Amino acid sequence: MAEGTFTIRNESGGRTLALAGDWSSLTLGDKAAQLGDAMAGATGRTHLDLAQIGHLDTAGAYAILRAVLPTLAPSPMPREAERLFTLVRPAVEEEVATRQHQPWLTALVTRIGMAVFAIWNELLSAANFAGRLVFELGQLIRSPSKLRGVALTHTMESAGIDALPIVITMNFFIGAVIGLVGTDLLRSLGFAILTVQLIGVAMLREFGVLITGILLAGRSASSFAAQIGSMKMAQEVDAMQVIGVDPYEALILPRIIALLIMMPLLTFAAMIAGIAGGMIVCWAALDISPIFFFTRMSETVEIRHFWVGMAKTPLLALLIAMAGCRHGLEVGGDVESLGSRVTAAVVQAIFMIILFDAVFAIIFMELNL
Question: How far apart are CA 63 and CA 95, in angstroms?
């Protein structure tokens, strides 16, 4: 292999860049940087002379095009070289466009437009996934034997039972914090006994389901996206389709149904743990015995608060599972894509949980529930 060389011949109105030797990933070395420095600040037209060039691959074509693209003039070249330049040209044009200085207002409008376009694509992707999921659920109702029991029970264990310790622990401390804040505030007003009612309503109506949903978003949505995404990277999803296995039936439905089953149970455990944490704080700070605490709660906290909290769980479970599975299916062939999709799944799931929890709060307030 001959090391690549270049010669620049200045002419009227431009120059000719004559390339010789091998321009490939094995022989390129620092020639790309040298060529870039030599062509920096060039004006006029640049013609390429490839008569003496040897072996050329995409790395060499990229280095040459990156140095001369802003001033490149149409030049005759071998058919194989033309094919390589055509292949790498879009990537070089994108890089050159990002390097060019733009007025701040143009750059701002461009970024806003790209963000709006990305949001629109996300909405279309989510709508497409939701429609396909509704269809698959309808098919499953018609033929329940399609449900994979082993995958379902495994997901129920990993996404539900294994999450129970962290859910109980977190909600226990949330209940304790509510008790501490309520005790400090209401005692100064002379209504310390209302702390019991505050703990009951807060944990049953809002915090039990909200904290559980956020924990599952960080735990299960990321897990679903990583599992399905790694299978997508290894082309296992494509292999399943080749042998006639529906990825939605094998990968998506078991995870959706498992979370629909387990989230109400986890939410119930979270409510109990939060109330227990608040009870211990009331016992220690206000000298309210557990018997009096539960008696007072049963008298002042209506059962409707429990059902209001539990009514939110199916939709929140569906949003969490959909975010994880959808982003997992959209992972590309590289690790960067996997990481970005896992992050997007968690962020999107948490955002949707808080958004719909606020929507539920408004609806229930209007219904006087």
Answer: 12
